[in-house]
Amino acid sequence: MRLYPVIMCGGAGTRLWPASRPSRPKQFIPLSGNRSLFQEAVLRTQPLVSGGGRIIVIGGHAHRSAILDQLHDIGVVAQVLLEPEARDSAAAMAAAAAWTEQHDADGVNVFVASDHHIPDHGAFCEAVRQAGEAALKGHIVTLGVKPTEPSTAYGYIQPAASDLAPVKQFVEKPDRDVARDYIQKGFLWNSGNFILSASTLLSELAHCAPDVLQSARASVNGCAGDVFELGVAFRSAPKISIDYALMERTQRAWVLPVDFQWSDLGAWDAVAATGEGEFGGHIFEDAEGCMARAPEGVVVAALGVRNLAIVVEGDAVLVCDLSRAQDVKKVVERLRKSSPQHIDFVRPEMETLEVGARRFREWLRLRALPLWSSVGQAENGAFAELLNLDGRSVAAERRARVQARQIYVFAQAGLLGWQGPWRQNIMDGFAYLERKFLRPDGLMRTLVAHDGTPLDEGFRVYDQAFLLLALATAKKAGVDWGGRAEAIAHEVRKRLLEREDDGGAIVEAGDQPYQSNAHMHLLEAALAWSEVSDDPAWSAIAEQVASLATTVFMDSKTGRLREFFEADWTPASGEKGRLVEPGHQFEWAWLLARLHRRGGDQKWLTAAKALFDRGVEGVDARGQVAVDALDEEGGVRVRRARLWPQTEWLKASLLLADLCPSEEKRFLLEAARAQRAVWTYLTDDGLWRDKRLENGRFIDEAAPASSLYHIVSAFTQVVEAGTLGDGAPSLALS
Questions:
Q1: Residue 403's pLDDT is what?
Q2: Is the CB of residue 115 less than 8 Å from the CB of residue 42?
Q3: 3-state secondary structure of 520
Q4: How many helices (H) and strands (E) does the chain have?
Q5: d(CA 674, CA 657)
Q6: What is the spatial distance between Cα 481 and Cα 668, in angstroms, rounded to a whole number?
Q7: Do domains 3-266 and 353-720 have the same CATH topology?
Q8: What is the radius of gyration, based on Cα positions, of the chain?
């Protein structure tokens, strides 16, 4: 038996105001101990998945951060399903069951509320396992808690027998006299926990609530990754509880009596009863039966009072007789009319795409470009490989690709209206490239020493692609060295095509003859040249490389693109052959989308969207950054996150938003996320951190010049998308 606990994170907990608010409901705050109720629920169910199951968490999109942060704090990995909007418990349970069925046809779900207090984890797990055996026989088992008092806060269950038995009836919350009568007749408290196989739930919903089932199934289509936002179909599900949709109609309902401590902590009196509800060191003088909670640094002093809950938040204080705790909801309703700002905590607004784009512009023209055009280039024209975070150049070996990339950067800056010395940067940079990197055959050597001494005469397709891109962009900006730019480019192209195999691929030097990354940048260069030259050979190269991407590099079924291949075009052996890079998923998507925009061929756009969607799988849900690497199945391989994938995420999002009007909103939301991710790397001084660790910290190291190519390319797409929105001439001084 494989168990799949489902932690249900719905509910607002209005009776626990002012601590519980819509943006931070009661399940995410510590009410009985140091952990939140949600964390306790996860840890309580964790032993149940040892047989091969998995914990599933389903909650609202608004609580994404709380869910992920709190899972991370207790070191638990779960499958998280996020609802686009609340549709009550029936739809949530159906979606979780549909996910379970997709992964395990025999899986048994354990639906538990995220806000219940059950101190005895062992007794709970023992009861669930017993109920699970009955669930395998097709029963829907709920846990009925033996009452300790005639409570009016809970619904009741009438069992057919004293042990595990069919349910005779469910009844709503009674008054105290009726509750007392129920207890005498053997009724149990309805705990709201359900144990049943996923197939049973889905089968019963097909009969009792087919609309719920249909919406739920559709919402999990294409589910991938540890965090998945349920599809738009979820919004069409009827808003109905599982009690009304199924439990009061099914003939399969059974109940297992349990005798452990249980509470739904529905009001402050229940919290006080746990004995663990206080926060802070408070003073009680001649005060009995009181509970106080307050933020750190705030002391509550109570004198001569009895049976009170005193709850302090930054914007509100509740003083409540514990016997009236259930009436706090009345206070909340009055607040909705008289002081609605106190219903929820004020949440800081995330930076919009437009505002972020303007900040991006100012950072580039006033910080980054002035720094890299001066300190970032030596008097002999050589571009720096690295700048320390204090702005000093680092003596390092010089790579051909960086020299070419920086020429592209300043050419593009000129095209965008930057009024710095971009033209001189290009002229000096190319003069150095020509002196130190160009070989007699017209191709670039790979590496020279800091002083320009050749260190590696080797050939890299990757490097030549950036030379071609630099030349095309410089020519577009009006710098072509008296017509030499195109002549040099033709010679480089000739040499590259001499290395073309029968399938149209360019054979790379070294132990990996075929690499998708080198071809990607060759496509970028070919597209750049097709914009500034009438030579049809450039368009032919672009089409050929794009065809390789969609037929060889990219898996047609999954949309994931491999990086390294053997001579027979099989994926490289070992880990290299399994590598999938989210940043390259986005970068290829952007390039294929550009190819579609130029020629109108729908197949390139279709492929671009598939690549993009698989790239999004690599966006860390908690950190909101694109990680370095996935495997061929979409699982995270390396959680480190470099700067450059964020820029490619931004580029692809903006271009696809422009090309796909029906999905514009989705892609613009992705663009806003990506732009905010980029900003976490940039410093106020025009520099950047390159490598972000899983814990959110950055490796303390110099800023690599190679990233400026990605940054400027991303900003170029920002300008093309019209995101600045103020009519200002891009990088020109306003």
A1: 97
A2: no
A3: helix
A4: 24, 28
A5: 13
A6: 40
A7: no
A8: 31
| C-alpha to C-alpha distances, 600 to 62, 148, 474, 604, 662, nearest whole angstrom | 38, 71, 27, 8, 17
**Which of the four CATH numbers 3.40.50.300, 3.40.630.10, 1.10.10.10, 1.50.10.10 does domain 353-720 have?**
1.50.10.10
- Nearest CA to 141 out of 126, 129, 131 is that of 131
Query: Phi and psi of 250, rounded to 5°?
Result: -75, 155
pLDDT of residue 548: 92
Closest CA to 596 of 612, 581, 616, 584: 612
How many whole angstroms from its chain centre is CA 400? 35
Task: Give 652-655's long-range contacts (Cβ < 8 A, gap of 24+).
Answer: 652/586, 652/587, 652/589, 652/590, 652/593, 652/608, 652/612, 652/615, 653/586, 653/612, 654/717, 654/718, 654/720, 654/721, 654/723, 655/590, 655/593, 655/594, 655/597, 655/717, 655/720, 655/721
DSSP string over 695-718 = TS-B---PEETHHHHHHHHHHHHH
**CA dist 184 → 144, 159, 259, 569 (Å):** 15, 13, 16, 76
Which 3-state string (H, E, C) describes 110-137?
Answer: EEEECCCECCCHHHHHHHHHHHHHHHCC
Sorted by where each begins, the domain ranges of the chain are 3-266, 272-342, 353-720
- Best CA proximity match to 279, nearest among 73, 18, 14, 39: 18
For the packed helices 461-476 and 422-436, what is the interaxial angle rounded to 10 degrees?
Answer: 150
Could you state, in chain order, the average pLDDT of each consecutive group of 10 residues for the chain (734 residues)?
91 85 89 88 93 91 89 91 90 94 92 92 94 93 92 89 90 91 92 93 92 92 81 90 88 92 89 80 90 90 94 93 92 92 81 91 95 96 96 95 98 95 97 95 93 92 96 96 93 93 81 83 97 95 94 86 82 83 96 94 95 92 89 83 97 96 93 95 96 92 97 96 75 69
CA 343 to each of CA 269, 312, 655: distance values in angstroms, whole numbers, following the listed order: 21, 14, 40
Among 272, 299, 307, 314, residue whose Cα is nearest residue 32: 272
Which DSSP category does 279 fall into? Answer: B
CATH homologous superfamily for the domain 3-266 = Spore Coat Polysaccharide Biosynthesis Protein SpsA; Chain A (3.90.550.10)
Per-residue exposure over 546-560, b if at least 16 CB sit within 10 Å of its own CB, e if not: bebbbebbbeeebbb
Given a contact cutoff of 8 angstroms between Cβ atoms, the answer to whether 335 and 274 are in contact is: no
pLDDT tens column, 651-661? 999 999 999 99
Backbone angles phi, psi at 600, to 5 degrees: 85, 5
Q: DSSP assignment, residue 367?
A: I
In 10 A of CB 334, how many CB atoms?
A: 10
Q: What is the pLDDT of residue 727?
A: 62
DSSP state of 351: P
- In the numeric block, the tokens 């949309």 are attached to 559
SS3 letters across 622-645 = CCCEECCEECCCCCEEECCEECHH
Within a 10 A sphere around the Cβ of 635, how many other Cβ atoms?
Answer: 12
